[in-house]
Design goal:
Elements (H helix, E strand, L loop, with lengths): L1 H20 L6 H14 L1 H9 L4 H10 L4 H20 L4 H20 L4
């Protein structure tokens, strides 16, 4: 069972790392999921993730206060606007634009209503 948790943690961490540069793929939820999985599989991996200079502070801030750093909020906002702008440029059908606008607005609402570290 520990191998399954470790694999799930590694996949989550990989997705979180990709999310740093790929719009619409969230970083923080995948890093939090990786920490959850590592806590159940490997104390060494869990401790490494908590001590990581990029990912560790995200986990600590979320655990402490459910907080997201202002810089991360702005990065998410820019990513969302870039994705929606690309959808407009690609002239997607209106129904897809509406669905995307509602979904992305909800994501941004959640992000911006979290406390800041």
């Amino acid at each position: 069972m520990k191998a399954i948790w470790a694999t799930a943690g590694l996949v989550s961490l990989l997705l979180g790392a990709i999310g740093i540069v790929l719009p619409l793929l969230p970083t923080v939820p995948f890093v939090l999921l990786a920490a959850f999985c590592f806590a159940r599989s490997s104390e060494r991996l869990h401790d490494w993730l908590l001590a990581h200079r990029t990912f560790g502070p995200m986990i600590a801030e979320w655990r402490r206060a459910g907080a997201i750093r202002r810089g991360a909020k702005w990065a998410a906002t820019v990513s969302v606007l870039a994705v929606f702008g690309a959808s407009l440029a690609l002239q997607l059908p209106v129904k897809f634009l509406v669905i995307q606008a509602v979904t992305l607005s909800c994501v941004l609402l959640f992000i911006w209503t979290r406390p800041e570290a």
